[in-house]
User: Fold this.
Amino acid sequence: MRILMVTPHLPPYQAANALLPHLLGEGMRARGHEVAFLTFGREADRPDVAFVRRRSARLRRTRLPQALEAAETWLKGTPATKRADVVHIHSNTWMNQVAARLAQRQGRPYIVTHYGTEIWHHDGKDAAFRRLNAGARHVTLYSAALLARARELGVPMRDASVVYPPVADVFTPRPPAEREALRREYVPDGAPLLLNVKRLHPLADQATLLEAMARVRVARPQARLVIAGSGDQEGPLKALAQGLALGDSVVFLGLVPNERVAGLQAAADVFVLSSVLEATPTVALEALASGTPVVSADNPGGVELGALFRDDVSVVPKSDPEALARAILAALETPRRTGSATARTIADRFRLPGVVDRYLALYEEARASASAAR
Assistant:
């Protein structure tokens, strides 16, 4: 089967809508399928990747950048779509909407995957977004809460289901000696290590996490919080950390390669997710797959993971540094790794082979239904 992935990002960008198409592409190729990508970027095109250049944000009110991006998408997407049996559209941008129209024009079935923002912020009035979904053979969503919200908003979907994100095999528990060696890169022997991996963005609410850390530090002065990620909130967050006199108890690593993130996830004592809005937070799943318990704010994804993983995910009210600090301290009071039930759930529902199986079935159904409709 020939599959075209249309996605706004690819690695090294670490957003979910970069990681899923990349991992899915690897899994499909391993089974003998042909995968190509259409994405944003400034690089020269490769045989399997066509790049659409993002235009200046300064002129976006004029719609000129979007028009130029749409034109380039049409130009580069036309041959890629003609070659594909199925088009898989990840998220919602001008590029994605143009790609969907191309697929319809050329008689190619497409499916859509939504990750969160495009549903959480949908006001029910975006006609282009509604057409994108209405024309899809199937819409997959990152969580049950996201699917429920899409239905509540009346998003037109011919068929829809939840397909949870895959966790790469590199995220796995490490032997004690290896884990201790990883920990020594960040904390002295025996000191608690807390981890947050997210874009530095208001929705990730690392400000509440820093305020919680100031409280944690009173009881556990050796504890260290490592934050991996970049974003426009880096300056304000560093200023807040300084204002809270956190000193070297907080480390901002910036954007970190996935291989290094995997080591961090295994080394941490607790993964802390302070986000106010999430679908299924892949970073929390990566922590659980690495054997690290999670403390999460009660965003929709955190609540859903709490129901799935029970004792290994503690859920507290969002934007509440006192509650977050209490949960962190409780987790540090009796340090532990995740249990066997969590390992089984990860293996059964969140590893790549099962996700590939599910999407292959959807691709086949889309292709068969398109053929029957001709």
Observations:
- The chain has a mean pLDDT of 93.
- The chain has two domains: 2-166+351-373, 176-349.
